[in-house]
Amino acid sequence: MTEPAATAVPETTQVPPARLEPDAIGVAQDTVIGMANAAPSVSVGLTLAGLAAATAYASGPIILLTAVPMLIVANAYRRLNLWNANCGASFEWVGRAMNPYLGFITGWLMIAGSLVGAISGVVVLAPSVLAVFGASATSTWPNIIISTAVILVMLVIAVVGIRITARTQVSLGLIEYVILVGFAIAGLVAVLGHHHGTFPITRGWFSVTGIGGHGSLAAGFLIAVFMYTGWDASVYVNEEVTHRRANPGRAAVMAVAFLAIIFIVSEVGLQGVVSPARLQANSASALVYVGQALGGGGWAKVIALSLALSVIASTGTALVIIARMAYGMARHRVLPLFLGNVSHRFSTPATASIVVGVVLIVATWIYLLSSSIANVFTQLIDVTGLLYAAFYVLTAIAAMVYYRRRIVSNPWDAVLVGILPVGAVAFLVWMVVKSLQAAPASQIWSLVGIVGVGFILMFVARFVLRSPFFGIPRESAPRDR
């Protein structure tokens, strides 16, 4: 008996592979995603006291100067995205322009930096939420329950689609930024009005060396670079943005510019609300303490809400962008292929998103339940800024290498893609060296461990997964492109 003809499936009826939804969000929403990943309220809260002390109250000039290399690197991202717009971003750019092995390490640093940064936000989420309701933030299980619930909610949003993700980020961001900037303006009015207990503005606030020349440029720049990290999230959703080659790069540049404005206004406006001694004595909860000094317990709860929204937003963006990094790398078989699966229903890398969500939940539980493991995580968190600086440097160099023919043939590109990126790279390398010189051995070993794991994974990708990525030819832009 012969088999029925119906068992043969014509090639024309095969279901095409699912892909991410093109033209789903605009440049404004993409900009907010980049800003959300930098978590402005959390960044200000963590650095308010430290930056004031390090710079001798010259926070404004230091943040402004740090914005320059960040904008230069963001422009390098923009130029590279014009060439090749895909979720792998720096992983693929460095791999195709310089070396695929270096590209893999860049991709690993992207994932590691974003994952550790997400964990650092999640573990401070519950205390911020509990502070809104005036509850104790020291109990372990309320912290675990709140953190887990938020991750699960943001995971569902991330899986359902980039459109709802973008709308959520815009909603959270608008509330967060209005609260933060509103408090900063109120703080600045109080300082200018010489309210009791405030610290007066002097000429030193506008000098890079601070009051009496006692500010440390190196220490100030280290803190400021940490504040900016995360704006590159705008690029990892490039396959879902309208005009995917042009808009994600523009969004990255705009995210850095808007972050600079928010950071300068917030740090300058809030650092003088209380005396230096009181600010440093309450450095662990500086933002909430300043809010209470401005308007009592009610205002403190409002600023705590801003912190909570900031962490929730950054957790949501972390789930989205890490999943897309993994998706972009899995398509080249340098990570397990199942991470490259896209949901036919939602057009998102659902599998990768769920994996990232599970990792965040497990890491949060371990951190909160084990003090010894928490110490290990703390060392990793302390080097997050260095991981970001490393792949920013590699990306800027990749832009110079890819556009090298333009650099020597076009004066404008010689400046934008040659001279300025060299300066930005030199600044970031200097910052990394200064950080490592001041870092304890435990932090250095945590960095070595992260890089070491990257090399092991690269070995697996090359010889076990047999990824063809490691055999791709080098590419460069022609003179007239």
What does this entry show, briefly?
This protein has helices spanning 27-38, 40-55, 59-83, 90-97, 100-122, 125-132, 140-160, 162-192, 217-228, 233-236, 247-270, 276-281, 286-295, 297-330, 350-369, 371-382, 384-402, 404-409, 411-438, 441-463. The chain has 481 residues and is mainly α.
Strand content: under 5%
What is the fourth-level CATH superfamily?
Amino acid/polyamine transporter I
Number of domains: 1
Query: What is the radius of gyration computed over CA atoms, rounded to a whole number of angstroms?
Result: 23 Å
Query: Which runs of at least 5 residues are low in confidence (pLDDT < 50)?
Result: 1-13
SSE arrangement, N to C: HHHHHHHHHHHHHHHHHHHH
